[in-house]
## 1
Amino acid sequence: MRHRYYSAFSIQHSAFALLTLLALLALALFIAPAATSAQSTSTVTGVIFLSDAGVLPSTAIVTIQLADVTEPGVVASVTTERIFSTGGAQSPFSFTLPYNPEQINPARRYRIQGNIRVAGQTLYSTAVPYSVITFGSPTSNLQITMAKVATGGLPQSSGGAQPLLLAGTLLLAGLGTMAIRRRLGLARGAV
């Protein structure tokens, strides 16, 4: 009877050992790709300056992007981006932009571009190109200057067009009504 107890214990112990081994193997398979991708990550680093001595509100959002700009006249294809809140901090802002070097084609041109927005409105933007990574371009200690965006005093959204559209529609309706009344009036006078 004691012999059966050890046999059952041995079987349970072996099953537990086998399940533990399978769990460790599965964990290793999930961790290995993460470790591989972590090893293949590179970064572009630098500091963002404002072109003026502007003070940003604590709600300002900075977007910095790595973009493929090889094709002239075509909108740049964003390879990676980082978005962060200033949290009330003022310029200069340090940044680290991770990217996967496997996504970089050495025959293409890449640039850093970015902007600073508040409540959806762009206040600052990169005004000059900052080439990086390929063709001997740097990947660290970049000094990016963002220039103030001129708004011209007009709203950035199409919300200002709605009242004009409504006024134009009402004007056309009024003119149409006048034309119909005039025609009806002329028709009555002719009878």
## 2
Amino acid sequence: MATINVNVDEKVKEQAKETLEYLGTNFTNVINMLLRQIILTESIPFEIKIPKLNNETIKAIEDAENGKGLSKGYNDLDEMWKDIEKEG
């Protein structure tokens, strides 16, 4: 057996680890499957592309990043219910 060391973002690693655990597997198994698929297909076994976003989606992302059009956040449940009652 050989060892491969890979640098990855900590958050990405943790999210992937949780998903793999849910699926009943781990990084070692998945990396071995990936490497075998690379050998079998003589390629990267999945499509790699930059997603194309339309103008509406780009604007929605920009608005969300700038806090525009988002609903009000609450730290107080009573305040939230008062606002709901005002709207109704």
